[in-house]
Amino acid sequence: MKEGRQNRITTIRMMTSNAYLVANGKRAILIDAGMKKKEKKFLAALEQMQLSPQDIQLIILTHTHYDHAGSIKALQEITKAKILVHKAEASCLAQGHCAFPKGTMWFPKIMSAIGRALNKWVGRYAPVAPDIAIAKRFDLRPFGIDGYILPTPGHTAGSLSVVIEDNHAIVGDTLFNVFKHSVYPPYANDREGLLKSWKKLLEIRCEYFYPGHGKPFARERLQKTYVEKKR
Length: 231
Ligand SMILES: [Zn+2]
Ligand SMILES: [Zn+2]
Known about the structure:
Layout: E1 8-14, E2 17-24, E3 27-31, H1 39-48, E4 56-60, H2 66-69, H3 72-79, E5 82-86, H4 90-95, H5 106-122, E6 132-134, E7 138-139, E8 147-151, E9 160-164, E10 168-172, H6 191-203, E11 208-211, E12 217-218, H7 219-230
Parallel strand pairs: 3-4, 4-5, 5-6, 10-11
Antiparallel strand pairs: 1-2, 2-3, 7-8, 8-9, 9-10, 11-12
Bound molecules: zinc ion (2 copies).
């Protein structure tokens, strides 16, 4: 990735999903909270970055599925940071449960049906009352980070992306980098809305994307899948 950025972006692997730490000196934010009981992974990443839990000013949830919000309660207790979520999913977080999304392809469609049935049990996590619930663009400069949060609905109604220094976007499940030929997520509640969100991310000229699943990738890969899906 581009050198010389002030805001360092570090990936924390929280089992199947990624969380991201963004730090500017000693001020930092965390994006997503992984699966349940993954706070040790977070603490190890902090240590590597020579940060302490109190340096985390804010925890942003890209959405409230259990693989992104699983450890939120534990991380809130460890860091005492403020918790931010989109308004549309504030009640999911407060209940510790978010409905399983619709499948976008045949296999995920079957998985989604099974997931919906099982989600009542496996999809639960310790709930948290959010401190900040947003519905539009949100500036991160008061938290010491050169960036902002942008609503990018589609995967879920309250999906958020975090744009750092105008060209790096941490996107949760709005983009999936686990398939060879596509970054289209296997699950999305609103497929048309999802493509509108992709258009937004392309229009603001983001160059690098950090997905909730899989490795970061460059703009061309998103552009290619976008053109294919718009056909
Ligand atoms: Zn998700
Ligand atoms: Zn996910």
